[in-house]
Design a protein that fits this description.
Helices cover about 40% and strands about 25% of the residues. It is of the alpha+beta class. A six-stranded antiparallel β-sheet has the order 1-2-3-4-6-5. It is globular, with a radius of gyration of 15 Å. The termini are far apart. The model has no long low-confidence stretch (mean pLDDT about 95).
Length: about 130
């Protein structure tokens, strides 16, 4: 097992060029949707946090890249759009040479923002 990267930049720098470029592009799209997001390493992968909560993450494995939506509910809501992708409970796997469509990424990130805002409002109303 390789050591956890100390920063997002270090994580990306350790990847093959094709994965590095695909994940950088994915990160750029996420940043464009959520300019106030903070990038950190969480669970060993680059994670975007918004308003103090994890929003989405991205990562690389030997044979693919991953976009971690972190929400089974969002994945289910977008099931029709994700039909052609290799998915799991909160993850979309893709080949670096075939990145996820930018508009799909934007829609998924916006859905995660809405989900986090609703969760925060529920927590606040219970206090």
């Amino acid at each position: 097992m390789s050591p956890v990267a100390a920063s997002v930049e270090a994580y990306l720098a350790a990847l093959p060029a094709e994965q590095q470029a695909a994940l950088q592009k994915l990160g750029d799209v996420i940043e464009a949707v959520v300019p106030g997001a903070i990038e950190v390493i969480s669970y060993g992968v680059p994670t975007f946090k918004f308003q103090g909560r994890s929003l989405v993450s991205l990562g690389a494995a030997k044979n693919h890249c991953s976009f971690f939506v972190q929400s089974p509910a969002v994945m289910e809501a977008f099931a029709d759009d994700l039909g052609g992708y290799d998915t799991a409970k909160g993850t979309i796997r893709f080949q670096p040479a075939e990145p996820l469509p930018e508009e799909l990424v934007r829609r998924l990130v916006r859905a995660r923002i809405e989900e986090n805002v609703r969760a925060a409002a529920r927590r606040t109303s219970k206090r």
